[in-house]
Automatic annotation (TrEMBL):
One of its GO terms (biological process) is porphyrin-containing compound biosynthetic process. The keyword Heme applies. One of its GO terms (molecular function) is 4 iron, 4 sulfur cluster binding. Belongs to the anaerobic coproporphyrinogen-III oxidase family. HemW subfamily. PROSITE patterns: RADICAL_SAM. This is Heme chaperone HemW. Probably acts as a heme chaperone, transferring heme to an unknown acceptor. Binds one molecule of heme per monomer, possibly covalently. Binds 1 [4Fe-4S] cluster. The cluster is coordinated with 3 cysteines and an exchangeable S-adenosyl-L-methionine.
Length: 388
């Protein structure tokens, strides 16, 4: 019997006021009234249908993402969380996160989300520069971003995250640092700081803006890292910084190859079984279609089992993003593989100085984090024989 990893729950609420040109998520600009009641009903039907797969397991984290979940009313979020507890066992100390757009919230709304059971917010600021926000298609300005952070604190949220991007169109080093300084001044417990990339299928990919070159982007990352560290933030993942104890537990579960149910249009799930199988699923993407088929097998657009010869790379793509990596014993338990499946790639990575030499831990060195894609490339060759 293989021990099962922790279980999280992801809920996808797919509507936004408008689609940002860099976004490749399953999000849809709202046309007409928000179908709050119909979508909530569909999510709870989906939860009831998924519940047997979580028998005997408690949900330790819930993440409500999108889209812009803060478009939904606090009352709807409260009904959703209450309904979920009727189908799933939710741990008493579960971390429950809601993504929020500064352009769709104010303090009373935050107070309502807090009363509904949400105990962590992730606020999509992206930048504090008005010109950059306009280029990025955001519906808020710098003042609204600052007001949202203050409102979160005033509403009683002890933990909230500010989401920032760097290497924005025509951005210089001073602009990137100024964004981080502005975020630090608002005293969040967590700052996500990631580089803008041009993803296929986005407006930016079709009509690329002028972005900083690789050297300037690296300088931005390094300078911002210095600012964050000096302010007392600890980098625990490639793009995530937190105060001590403020790491996002839901995302940590992803990065450590934990399990998660997924409800909502386009939601991706992962579940392990006690006999060593790992299955991934994807729900149908179109919201209206999802609302029709939720709670039936037709809601699953795709389901596949992760074969043994792909598990090493899948595991390390997540775990090596963590600054501390993961224990060797956990890697073997979560993948169900022997050490021989990891050993050749790890030996090569250590020889190149990309992974630490600690025999009980799989972790990238500082140079390995910098060249993470090259490091992961060492594990592209399937080790079928070793994994069997």
């Amino acid at each position: 019997m293989t021990p099962l990893p922790p279980l999280g729950l992801y809920l996808h609420l797919p509507w936004c006021v408008q689609k940002c040109p860099y976004c490749d998520f399953n999000s849809h600009a709202l046309r007409g009234p928000l179908p709050e009641t119909d979508y909530l009903t569909a999510l709870l039907r989906d939860a009831a249908w998924e519940a047997p797969t979580a028998t005997g397991r408690s949900v330790r984290t819930i993440f409500i993402g999108g889209g812009t979940p803060s478009l939904f009313s606090p009352a709807a979020i409260g009904q959703l969380l209450e309904g979920l507890s009727q189908h799933l066992t939710v741990a008493g100390d579960a971390e429950i996160t809601l993504e929020a757009n500064p352009g769709t919230v104010e303090q009373k709304r935050f107070e309502g989300f807090r009363a509904a059971g949400v105990n962590r917010l992730s606020i999509g600021v992206q930048s504090f520069d008005a010109g950059q926000l306009h280029r990025l298609g955001r519906i808020h300005g710098p003042g609204e971003a600052r007001a949202a952070a203050r409102a979160a604190r005033a509403a009683g949220f002890e933990r909230f995250n500010l989401d920032l991007m760097f290497a924005l169109p025509d951005q210089d080093l001073a602009g990137a640092v100024a964004d981080v300084d502005a975020a630090i001044a608002l005293e969040p417990e967590h700052i996500s700081h990631y580089q803008l990339t041009l993803e296929p299928g986005t407006a930016f990919h079709a009509r690329p803006p002028a972005l900083p070159d690789e050297d300037l982007a690296a300088d931005m990352e390094a300078a911002c890292a210095e600012r964050l560290a000096a302010a007392g933030f600890v980098r625990y993942e490639v793009s995530a910084w937190s105060r001590p104890g403020g790491a996002c537990r839901h995302n940590l579960n992803y990065w450590r190859f934990g399990d998660y149910l997924a409800l909502g249009a386009g939601g991706h799930g992962k579940l392990s079984t006690s006999d060593g199988r790992i299955q991934r699923t994807r729900k149908v993407a179109l919201p209206r279609h999802y609302q029709t088929v939720a709670g039936t097998p037709a809601a699953v657009a795709e389901a596949w089992e992760v074969p043994a010869d792909e598990r090493v790379l899948e595991y390390l793509m997540n775990a090596l993003r963590l600054v501390d990596g993961a224990p060797r014993a956990e890697a073997l338990a979560r993948t169900g593989l022997p050490w021989s499946a990891f050993a050749p790639g790890v030996a090569e990575a250590r020889a190149r100085g990309w992974m630490v030499s600690d025999p009980e831990r799989l972790a990238a060195t500082a140079e390995g984090l910098r060249f993470l894609n090259d490091l992961l490339g060492l594990f592209l060759e399937p080790a079928t024989e070793a994994a069997s």
